[in-house]
């Protein structure tokens, strides 16, 4: 890989990162709060590519000035320096960004990873709306650790994707993350009541229902899984940000 190829790869990688950071594509990889750092990295890569081209252009001019017929002794300025062949591996993340738009983690990961539900530090007051819109993480935390005290007598609405374990138990799931998709972990709500007769894994649903004290242990790690008594379930499109970041905000 010569200097021109290095510059081209750096520029294309920076451009691909910029494209991901200025669209919703980056949300498939990292949380929304890292967008400024991603755009900054793209700018640094493009600037490095431009600087490398400028350096190569100046080196070529110096080589021409010291080459045969210039009246000056030839030096080493005209000799190219090649990077190791392993540098071509930089093309792999570039091709991944350009050619592959991976889906967000779904039911396959959720049924093979234990629930990551954590006890909330506090339970903020809930608005008097009906139905009450809650995230999967918020409902699960209030149901398990708050013992449903803030949910009693309320009609709640939760959105997530469907996962079904080996025993046939349906869950409404949202993958929660701290930093990026590599550390995403599921938070699960068991569904009971008026469950749709056919549940396709990875289908996104907005479920309306009421609190029930029923809980179960996650078959993977033994963590607590609360249940929601379903009264209605409506298929919805995949949200623009499929991950839940509410537990680390």
Q: Strand-residue fraction? A: 15-25%
Poorly predicted regions are 74-79
Order of SSEs, N→C? HHHHEHEEEEE
Strand order of the largest sheet: 2-3-4-6-5
Q: What structural category characterises the helix and strand content?
A: alpha/beta
Question: Could you characterize what this model shows?
Answer:
It is a single chain. This protein has 249 residues and is of the alpha/beta class. The chain contains 5 helices and 6 strands; from the N terminus they run H-H-H-H-E-H-E-E-E-E-E. The chain has a 5-stranded mixed beta barrel with strand order 2-3-4-6-5. The protein is elongated and about 85 Å long. The model is unreliable at 74-79 (pLDDT under 50).
Which features characterize this protein?
5 helices; 249 residues; five-stranded mixed barrel; 6 strands; single chain; alpha/beta
């Amino acid at each position: 890989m010569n200097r021109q190829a290095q510059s081209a790869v750096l520029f294309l990688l920076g451009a691909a990162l910029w494209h991901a950071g200025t669209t919703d594509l980056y949300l498939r990889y990292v949380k929304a709060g890292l967008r400024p750092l991603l755009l900054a990295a793209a700018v640094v890569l493009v600037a490095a590519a431009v600087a490398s081209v400028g350096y190569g252009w100046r080196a070529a001019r110096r080589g021409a000035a010291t080459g045969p017929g210039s009246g000056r002794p030839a030096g080493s300025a005209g000799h190219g320096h090649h990077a190791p062949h392993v540098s071509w591996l930089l093309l792999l993340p570039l091709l991944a960004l350009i050619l592959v738009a991976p889906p967000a983690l779904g039911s396959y990961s959720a049924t093979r990873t234990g629930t990551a539900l954590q006890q909330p530090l506090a339970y903020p007051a809930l608005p008097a709306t009906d139905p009450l819109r809650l995230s999967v993480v918020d409902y699960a935390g209030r149901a398990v650790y708050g013992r449903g005290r803030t949910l009693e007598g309320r009609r709640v609405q939760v959105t997530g994707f469907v996962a079904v374990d080996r025993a046939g138990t349906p869950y409404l799931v949202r993958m929660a993350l701290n930093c990026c998709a590599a550390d995403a972990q599921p938070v699960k709500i068991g569904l009971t009541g008026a469950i749709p007769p056919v549940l396709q894994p990875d289908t996104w649903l907005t479920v309306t229902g009421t609190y029930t004290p029923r809980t179960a242990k996650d078959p993977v790690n033994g963590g607590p899984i609360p249940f929601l008594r379903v009264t209605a379930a409506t298929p919805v499109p995949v949200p623009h940000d499929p991950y839940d970041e509410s537990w680390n905000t």
